[in-house]
Protein backbone atom coordinates (compact mmCIF):
# COMPACT_ATOMS: atom_id res chain seq x y z
CA UNK A 1 0.00 0.00 0.00
CA UNK A 2 1.40 3.38 -0.95
CA UNK A 3 -0.21 5.70 1.56
CA UNK A 4 -0.69 9.26 0.39
CA UNK A 5 -1.71 10.79 3.69
CA UNK A 6 -1.02 10.72 7.38
CA UNK A 7 -3.44 11.65 10.07
CA UNK A 8 -1.41 13.17 12.91
CA UNK A 9 -2.82 12.84 16.39
CA UNK A 10 -1.73 14.97 19.28
CA UNK A 11 -2.68 14.80 22.89
CA UNK A 12 -1.63 17.03 25.71
CA UNK A 13 -4.09 17.16 28.53
CA UNK A 14 -4.63 20.73 29.59
CA UNK A 15 -3.98 22.25 26.20
CA UNK A 16 -7.17 24.19 25.84
CA UNK A 17 -8.60 27.43 24.51
CA UNK A 18 -6.08 29.85 23.10
CA UNK A 19 -3.18 27.53 23.97
CA UNK A 20 -4.69 24.85 21.86
CA UNK A 21 -4.44 26.97 18.70
CA UNK A 22 -0.87 27.87 19.53
CA UNK A 23 -0.06 24.22 20.07
CA UNK A 24 -1.67 23.18 16.79
CA UNK A 25 -0.09 25.95 14.74
CA UNK A 26 3.34 25.25 16.19
CA UNK A 27 2.91 21.56 15.46
CA UNK A 28 1.92 22.27 11.85
CA UNK A 29 5.00 24.48 11.49
CA UNK A 30 7.29 21.83 12.94
CA UNK A 31 5.86 19.13 10.71
CA UNK A 32 6.26 21.31 7.60
CA UNK A 33 9.86 22.10 8.55
CA UNK A 34 10.76 18.50 9.20
CA UNK A 35 9.13 17.12 6.05
CA UNK A 36 10.92 19.72 3.93
CA UNK A 37 14.14 17.93 4.77
CA UNK A 38 13.11 14.68 3.09
CA UNK A 39 12.57 13.82 -0.56
CA UNK A 40 9.01 14.50 -1.61
CA UNK A 41 6.51 17.33 -1.31
CA UNK A 42 3.91 17.37 1.42
CA UNK A 43 0.94 19.54 2.16
CA UNK A 44 0.34 19.92 5.90
CA UNK A 45 -3.02 21.29 6.98
CA UNK A 46 -5.03 21.72 10.12
CA UNK A 47 -8.69 20.90 9.69
CA UNK A 48 -11.34 20.74 12.39
CA UNK A 49 -9.09 19.59 15.20
CA UNK A 50 -6.98 17.33 13.03
CA UNK A 51 -3.65 17.63 11.29
CA UNK A 52 -3.14 15.95 7.95
CA UNK A 53 0.10 15.58 6.02
CA UNK A 54 -0.56 14.62 2.41
CA UNK A 55 2.12 13.68 -0.10
CA UNK A 56 1.96 15.55 -3.37
CA UNK A 57 4.74 13.58 -4.99
CA UNK A 58 6.59 10.31 -4.62
CA UNK A 59 8.19 9.87 -1.19
CA UNK A 60 9.78 7.23 0.99
CA UNK A 61 7.25 5.98 3.54
CA UNK A 62 9.79 4.83 6.14
CA UNK A 63 11.70 8.08 5.94
CA UNK A 64 8.52 10.10 6.39
CA UNK A 65 7.44 8.04 9.40
CA UNK A 66 10.90 8.23 11.00
CA UNK A 67 10.83 11.99 10.54
CA UNK A 68 7.37 12.38 12.06
CA UNK A 69 8.40 10.17 14.99
CA UNK A 70 10.93 12.83 15.99
CA UNK A 71 8.48 15.72 16.19
CA UNK A 72 7.53 16.58 19.75
CA UNK A 73 3.82 17.03 20.22
CA UNK A 74 2.85 14.12 17.98
CA UNK A 75 1.06 11.39 19.93
CA UNK A 76 0.39 9.09 16.98
CA UNK A 77 0.95 8.83 13.26
CA UNK A 78 -1.78 7.10 11.28
CA UNK A 79 -1.08 6.27 7.64
CA UNK A 80 -4.44 6.73 6.04
CA UNK A 81 -6.39 6.35 2.85
CA UNK A 82 -8.67 9.21 1.97
CA UNK A 83 -11.49 8.54 -0.47
CA UNK A 84 -14.19 10.69 -2.00
CA UNK A 85 -17.75 10.20 -0.92
CA UNK A 86 -19.23 8.43 -3.92
CA UNK A 87 -22.10 6.83 -2.08
CA UNK A 88 -22.47 4.10 0.50
CA UNK A 89 -21.92 1.16 -1.83
CA UNK A 90 -18.68 2.69 -3.04
CA UNK A 91 -17.54 3.17 0.58
CA UNK A 92 -18.02 -0.54 1.21
CA UNK A 93 -15.86 -1.31 -1.84
CA UNK A 94 -13.17 1.10 -0.75
CA UNK A 95 -13.04 -0.37 2.75
CA UNK A 96 -12.74 -3.90 1.37
CA UNK A 97 -9.95 -2.77 -0.95
CA UNK A 98 -8.16 -1.18 2.02
CA UNK A 99 -8.40 -4.31 4.17
CA UNK A 100 -7.33 -6.50 1.28
CA UNK A 101 -4.28 -4.44 0.50
CA UNK A 102 -3.06 -3.68 4.03
CA UNK A 103 -3.54 -7.15 5.55
CA UNK A 104 -2.10 -9.95 3.48
CA UNK A 105 -2.92 -12.43 6.23
CA UNK A 106 -6.63 -12.08 7.01
CA UNK A 107 -6.46 -14.16 10.16
CA UNK A 108 -7.26 -11.35 12.59
CA UNK A 109 -10.01 -10.08 14.83
CA UNK A 110 -11.37 -6.63 14.10
CA UNK A 111 -13.84 -3.98 14.96
CA UNK A 112 -15.10 -1.14 12.80
CA UNK A 113 -15.11 2.24 14.48
CA UNK A 114 -17.03 4.68 12.32
CA UNK A 115 -17.41 8.36 13.10
CA UNK A 116 -19.70 10.68 11.29
CA UNK A 117 -18.24 14.16 11.29
CA UNK A 118 -20.56 15.06 8.46
CA UNK A 119 -23.99 14.67 10.06
CA UNK A 120 -25.66 14.95 6.66
CA UNK A 121 -24.27 11.57 5.71
CA UNK A 122 -27.36 9.38 5.27
CA UNK A 123 -26.19 6.45 7.42
CA UNK A 124 -25.40 6.80 11.13
CA UNK A 125 -22.20 5.48 12.66
CA UNK A 126 -23.73 2.43 14.37
CA UNK A 127 -25.20 1.35 11.10
CA UNK A 128 -21.93 1.94 9.27
CA UNK A 129 -20.14 -0.23 11.88
CA UNK A 130 -22.59 -3.07 11.39
CA UNK A 131 -22.70 -2.90 7.59
CA UNK A 132 -18.96 -2.64 7.11
CA UNK A 133 -18.38 -5.43 9.64
CA UNK A 134 -20.71 -7.59 7.67
CA UNK A 135 -19.14 -6.97 4.26
CA UNK A 136 -15.67 -7.61 5.66
CA UNK A 137 -16.73 -10.90 7.26
CA UNK A 138 -18.37 -11.91 4.02
CA UNK A 139 -15.44 -11.00 1.78
CA UNK A 140 -12.78 -12.42 4.09
CA UNK A 141 -14.18 -15.37 6.02
CA UNK A 142 -10.93 -15.85 8.00
CA UNK A 143 -11.57 -12.59 9.87
CA UNK A 144 -13.54 -12.44 13.12
CA UNK A 145 -15.22 -9.62 14.96
CA UNK A 146 -14.04 -8.85 18.49
CA UNK A 147 -15.60 -5.72 19.90
CA UNK A 148 -13.61 -5.77 23.16
CA UNK A 149 -10.01 -6.49 22.19
CA UNK A 150 -9.76 -6.36 18.40
CA UNK A 151 -6.36 -6.88 16.80
CA UNK A 152 -7.35 -4.46 14.08
CA UNK A 153 -9.36 -1.35 14.87
CA UNK A 154 -10.60 -0.07 11.55
CA UNK A 155 -11.37 3.62 11.74
CA UNK A 156 -13.72 5.09 9.19
CA UNK A 157 -14.23 8.82 9.54
CA UNK A 158 -16.90 10.34 7.39
CA UNK A 159 -16.13 13.99 6.81
CA UNK A 160 -16.25 15.87 3.52
CA UNK A 161 -14.07 13.07 2.33
CA UNK A 162 -13.73 9.73 4.09
CA UNK A 163 -10.65 8.68 6.06
CA UNK A 164 -9.84 5.02 6.45
CA UNK A 165 -7.03 3.93 8.75
CA UNK A 166 -6.10 1.14 11.11
CA UNK A 167 -2.39 1.52 11.72
CA UNK A 168 -1.36 3.69 14.64
CA UNK A 169 2.36 4.41 15.04
CA UNK A 170 3.29 6.02 18.38
CA UNK A 171 4.92 9.46 18.22
CA UNK A 172 7.28 10.90 20.81
CA UNK A 173 4.61 12.81 22.77
CA UNK A 174 5.57 16.05 24.46
CA UNK A 175 4.82 19.51 23.12
CA UNK A 176 5.87 21.23 19.88
CA UNK A 177 9.18 23.05 20.13
CA UNK A 178 8.56 26.78 20.49
CA UNK A 179 5.40 26.58 22.57
CA UNK A 180 7.11 26.82 25.95
CA UNK A 181 9.84 29.42 25.75
CA UNK A 182 13.55 29.18 25.18
CA UNK A 183 16.36 27.69 27.28
CA UNK A 184 20.14 27.83 27.33
CA UNK A 185 21.65 24.33 27.43
CA UNK A 186 25.16 23.88 28.80
CA UNK A 187 26.38 21.36 26.27
CA UNK A 188 29.54 19.39 27.06
CA UNK A 189 30.86 16.53 24.98
CA UNK A 190 29.51 13.97 27.44
CA UNK A 191 26.58 11.58 27.43
CA UNK A 192 24.33 13.53 29.74
CA UNK A 193 23.88 17.06 28.47
CA UNK A 194 22.51 16.13 25.00
CA UNK A 195 19.91 13.95 26.75
CA UNK A 196 19.10 16.79 29.16
CA UNK A 197 18.52 19.08 26.18
CA UNK A 198 16.30 16.50 24.52
CA UNK A 199 14.15 16.18 27.63
CA UNK A 200 13.60 19.92 27.94
CA UNK A 201 12.98 20.36 24.21
CA UNK A 202 10.37 17.63 24.49
CA UNK A 203 8.41 19.93 26.77
CA UNK A 204 8.11 22.40 23.91
CA UNK A 205 11.19 24.48 24.70
CA UNK A 206 13.40 25.95 22.02
CA UNK A 207 17.12 25.46 22.78
CA UNK A 208 20.30 27.39 22.37
CA UNK A 209 23.64 25.95 23.55
CA UNK A 210 26.75 27.18 25.25
CA UNK A 211 29.99 25.22 25.27
CA UNK A 212 33.14 26.06 27.20
CA UNK A 213 36.26 25.35 25.27
CA UNK A 214 39.82 25.36 26.63
CA UNK A 215 42.15 25.35 23.68
CA UNK A 216 44.87 23.97 23.60
CA UNK A 217 44.05 21.87 26.68
CA UNK A 218 41.09 20.58 24.73
CA UNK A 219 41.51 20.08 21.00
CA UNK A 220 39.65 21.24 17.90
CA UNK A 221 38.39 17.67 17.71
CA UNK A 222 36.64 18.11 21.05
CA UNK A 223 34.91 21.20 19.67
CA UNK A 224 33.90 19.40 16.48
CA UNK A 225 32.45 16.63 18.62
CA UNK A 226 30.25 19.09 20.50
CA UNK A 227 29.05 20.68 17.26
CA UNK A 228 28.26 17.24 15.91
CA UNK A 229 26.25 16.46 19.07
CA UNK A 230 24.34 19.70 18.58
CA UNK A 231 23.72 18.79 14.96
CA UNK A 232 22.38 15.37 15.95
CA UNK A 233 20.06 17.06 18.43
CA UNK A 234 18.61 19.38 15.78
CA UNK A 235 16.60 16.51 14.35
CA UNK A 236 14.45 16.77 17.47
CA UNK A 237 15.06 20.30 18.69
CA UNK A 238 15.19 22.20 15.41
CA UNK A 239 18.07 24.41 14.36
CA UNK A 240 20.22 25.78 17.17
CA UNK A 241 22.94 28.30 17.86
CA UNK A 242 25.99 27.06 19.78
CA UNK A 243 27.99 29.70 21.68
CA UNK A 244 31.56 28.49 21.97
CA UNK A 245 33.15 30.33 24.86
CA UNK A 246 36.94 30.52 25.12
CA UNK A 247 37.58 29.23 28.63
CA UNK A 248 41.35 28.84 28.70
CA UNK A 249 42.23 32.05 30.50
CA UNK A 250 39.66 31.33 33.21
CA UNK A 251 40.89 27.81 33.77
CA UNK A 252 44.51 28.92 33.98
CA UNK A 253 43.57 31.68 36.41
CA UNK A 254 41.78 29.15 38.60
CA UNK A 255 44.73 26.76 38.45
CA UNK A 256 47.17 29.50 39.42
CA UNK A 257 45.13 31.21 42.13
CA UNK A 258 42.61 28.91 43.80
CA UNK A 259 42.97 26.02 46.26
CA UNK A 260 43.04 22.78 44.29
CA UNK A 261 40.10 21.11 46.06
CA UNK A 262 37.86 23.96 44.79
CA UNK A 263 38.99 23.95 41.14
CA UNK A 264 35.85 22.30 39.79
CA UNK A 265 33.45 24.30 41.94
CA UNK A 266 34.98 27.62 40.95
CA UNK A 267 35.04 26.59 37.31
CA UNK A 268 31.37 25.65 37.45
CA UNK A 269 30.55 28.98 39.03
CA UNK A 270 32.13 30.70 36.01
CA UNK A 271 30.22 28.46 33.64
CA UNK A 272 26.91 29.32 35.26
CA UNK A 273 27.55 33.05 35.35
CA UNK A 274 28.66 33.19 31.71
CA UNK A 275 25.80 30.98 30.56
CA UNK A 276 23.37 33.21 32.43
CA UNK A 277 24.70 36.35 30.73
CA UNK A 278 24.36 34.85 27.27
CA UNK A 279 20.97 33.38 28.14
CA UNK A 280 19.61 36.78 29.15
CA UNK A 281 21.04 38.48 26.08
CA UNK A 282 19.43 35.85 23.85
CA UNK A 283 16.02 35.71 25.51
CA UNK A 284 16.38 32.38 27.33
CA UNK A 285 14.36 31.94 30.51
CA UNK A 286 16.41 29.20 32.16
CA UNK A 287 19.63 27.21 32.11
CA UNK A 288 19.68 23.47 31.48
CA UNK A 289 22.44 21.11 32.65
CA UNK A 290 22.97 17.37 32.64
CA UNK A 291 23.65 16.88 36.31
CA UNK A 292 22.62 13.72 38.01
CA UNK A 293 22.44 13.49 41.79
CA UNK A 294 25.48 11.81 43.30
CA UNK A 295 27.13 10.91 39.99
CA UNK A 296 30.39 12.75 40.67
CA UNK A 297 31.86 14.99 43.38
CA UNK A 298 30.44 18.17 41.86
CA UNK A 299 26.95 16.70 41.76
CA UNK A 300 26.24 16.38 45.46
CA UNK A 301 23.43 18.42 46.89
CA UNK A 302 25.87 20.79 48.58
CA UNK A 303 27.95 21.28 45.43
CA UNK A 304 24.88 21.99 43.31
CA UNK A 305 23.56 24.43 45.90
CA UNK A 306 26.81 26.38 45.72
CA UNK A 307 26.92 26.29 41.91
CA UNK A 308 23.31 27.36 41.58
CA UNK A 309 23.59 30.15 44.14
CA UNK A 310 25.56 32.42 41.82
CA UNK A 311 22.81 32.83 39.21
CA UNK A 312 19.24 34.07 39.30
CA UNK A 313 17.82 32.20 36.33
CA UNK A 314 16.26 28.84 37.19
CA UNK A 315 18.51 25.86 36.44
CA UNK A 316 16.68 22.84 35.07
CA UNK A 317 18.35 19.46 35.55
CA UNK A 318 16.01 17.00 33.89
CA UNK A 319 18.30 13.99 34.53
CA UNK A 320 18.59 14.61 38.25
CA UNK A 321 16.66 11.50 39.29
CA UNK A 322 17.56 9.14 36.46
CA UNK A 323 19.92 6.18 36.65
CA UNK A 324 22.90 6.12 34.31
CA UNK A 325 21.32 3.13 32.56
CA UNK A 326 18.23 5.10 31.70
CA UNK A 327 20.28 8.04 30.45
CA UNK A 328 22.37 5.76 28.24
CA UNK A 329 19.26 4.09 26.83
CA UNK A 330 17.84 7.48 25.93
CA UNK A 331 21.17 8.63 24.43
CA UNK A 332 21.16 5.56 22.18
CA UNK A 333 17.56 6.12 21.19
CA UNK A 334 18.16 9.73 20.17
CA UNK A 335 21.39 8.81 18.40
CA UNK A 336 23.90 10.85 20.41
CA UNK A 337 25.58 8.02 22.34
CA UNK A 338 28.19 7.02 19.79
CA UNK A 339 29.41 10.58 19.38
CA UNK A 340 29.37 11.22 23.13
CA UNK A 341 31.74 8.36 23.84
CA UNK A 342 34.38 9.49 21.34
CA UNK A 343 37.49 9.86 23.48
CA UNK A 344 38.08 13.64 23.31
CA UNK A 345 38.72 15.45 26.56
CA UNK A 346 36.38 18.01 28.06
CA UNK A 347 37.52 21.14 29.86
CA UNK A 348 36.16 19.63 33.08
CA UNK A 349 38.85 16.99 32.97
CA UNK A 350 41.73 19.39 32.28
CA UNK A 351 42.57 20.47 35.81
CA UNK A 352 40.72 17.94 37.93
CA UNK A 353 41.49 18.14 41.64
CA UNK A 354 42.85 14.97 43.20
CA UNK A 355 40.53 15.43 46.19
CA UNK A 356 37.54 17.55 45.18
CA UNK A 357 35.48 19.14 47.92
CA UNK A 358 32.16 17.26 48.05
CA UNK A 359 30.46 19.25 50.82
CA UNK A 360 31.42 22.85 50.17
CA UNK A 361 29.77 25.84 51.80
CA UNK A 362 29.00 29.04 49.97
CA UNK A 363 31.47 30.96 52.15
CA UNK A 364 34.27 28.55 51.25
CA UNK A 365 33.64 28.90 47.52
CA UNK A 366 33.37 32.68 47.80
CA UNK A 367 36.74 32.66 49.56
CA UNK A 368 38.22 30.40 46.88
CA UNK A 369 37.06 32.87 44.20
CA UNK A 370 38.33 35.92 46.08
CA UNK A 371 41.77 36.17 44.43
CA UNK A 372 40.18 36.27 40.96
CA UNK A 373 39.00 39.25 38.95
CA UNK A 374 35.79 37.44 38.08
CA UNK A 375 34.12 40.29 36.22
CA UNK A 376 37.17 40.94 34.05
CA UNK A 377 37.62 37.26 33.28
CA UNK A 378 33.94 36.89 32.40
CA UNK A 379 33.94 39.99 30.18
CA UNK A 380 36.96 38.72 28.21
CA UNK A 381 35.45 35.25 27.86
CA UNK A 382 32.24 36.77 26.51
CA UNK A 383 34.23 38.75 23.97
CA UNK A 384 36.01 35.58 23.05
CA UNK A 385 32.82 33.77 22.07
CA UNK A 386 32.14 32.28 18.68
CA UNK A 387 28.59 31.71 17.46
CA UNK A 388 28.00 28.66 15.34
CA UNK A 389 24.64 27.92 13.79
CA UNK A 390 23.84 24.23 13.44
CA UNK A 391 21.10 22.58 11.44
CA UNK A 392 20.52 19.08 10.19
CA UNK A 393 21.34 19.82 6.57
CA UNK A 394 24.25 22.03 5.62
P1 LIG B 1 27.97 15.33 30.63
O1 LIG B 1 27.83 13.88 30.39
O2 LIG B 1 26.82 16.14 30.11
O3 LIG B 1 29.30 15.87 30.24
P2 LIG B 1 28.91 14.91 33.27
O4 LIG B 1 28.27 13.75 33.91
O5 LIG B 1 30.24 14.77 32.65
O6 LIG B 1 27.88 15.51 32.21
P3 LIG B 1 29.91 17.28 34.67
O7 LIG B 1 31.20 17.21 34.01
O8 LIG B 1 29.87 17.46 36.16
O9 LIG B 1 28.95 16.05 34.40
O10 LIG B 1 29.04 18.45 34.04
C1 LIG B 1 27.75 18.68 34.50
C2 LIG B 1 27.04 19.52 33.48
O11 LIG B 1 27.71 20.76 33.29
C3 LIG B 1 27.00 18.90 32.10
O12 LIG B 1 25.96 17.99 31.97
C4 LIG B 1 26.83 20.12 31.24
O13 LIG B 1 25.47 20.54 31.25
C5 LIG B 1 27.67 21.16 31.94
N1 LIG B 1 29.03 21.17 31.36
C6 LIG B 1 30.12 20.48 31.74
N2 LIG B 1 31.19 20.77 30.96
C7 LIG B 1 30.77 21.66 30.06
C8 LIG B 1 31.39 22.37 28.97
N3 LIG B 1 32.66 22.19 28.66
N4 LIG B 1 30.64 23.22 28.24
C9 LIG B 1 29.34 23.42 28.56
N5 LIG B 1 28.71 22.79 29.56
C10 LIG B 1 29.41 21.93 30.31
MG1 LIG C 1 31.15 15.68 31.08
Average residue-wise pLDDT: 93
Task: Give start-end ranges of low-pLDDT stretches.
Answer: none
The ligands found in this model are: adenosine-5'-triphosphate, magnesium ion
Radius of gyration: 27 Å
Q: Beta-strand level of the residues, as a percent range?
A: 15-25%
Protein model, in words:
The protein has 394 residues and is α/β, with parallel strands linked by helices. The protein is built from 13 helices and 15 strands. Helix 3 (88-102) packs across helix 4. The longest helix is centred in the N-terminal third of the chain and has 20 residues, at 17-36. It starts with a strand and ends with a strand. The mean pLDDT is 93.
Features:
40% helix, single chain, 6-stranded mixed β-sheet, alpha/beta, binds magnesium ion, 9-stranded mixed β-sheet, binds adenosine-5'-triphosphate, 13 helices, 394 residues, elongated
Summed up:
The chain has about 400 residues and is of the alpha/beta class.
Topology:
Elements (H helix, E strand, L loop, with lengths): L4 E5 L7 H20 L5 E6 L2 E6 L5 H8 L7 E8 L4 H15 L6 E8 L8 H15 L4 E2 L6 E7 L3 E4 L3 E2 L11 E5 L5 H11 L3 E8 L6 H18 L2 E7 L1 H10 L5 H19 L4 E3 L12 H8 L6 E2 L7 H11 L2 H4 L21 H8 L4 H10 L1 E6 L4
Parallel strand pairs: 5-6, 5-7, 10-11, 10-13, 11-12, 13-14
Antiparallel strand pairs: 1-3, 1-4, 2-3, 4-8, 4-9, 7-8, 12-15
The structure holds adenosine-5'-triphosphate and magnesium ion.
Amino acid sequence: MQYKSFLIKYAEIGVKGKNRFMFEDALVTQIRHALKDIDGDFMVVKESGRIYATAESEYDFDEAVETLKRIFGIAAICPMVQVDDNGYEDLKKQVLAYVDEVYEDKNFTFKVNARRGNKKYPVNSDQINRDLGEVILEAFPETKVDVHHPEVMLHVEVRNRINIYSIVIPGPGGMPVGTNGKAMLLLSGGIDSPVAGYMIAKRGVELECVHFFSYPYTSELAKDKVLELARLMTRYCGRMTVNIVGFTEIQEAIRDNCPEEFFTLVMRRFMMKIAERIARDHGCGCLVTGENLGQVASQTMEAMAVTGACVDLPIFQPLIGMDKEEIVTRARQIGTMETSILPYEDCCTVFTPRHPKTKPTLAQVDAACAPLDMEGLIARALENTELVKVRWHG
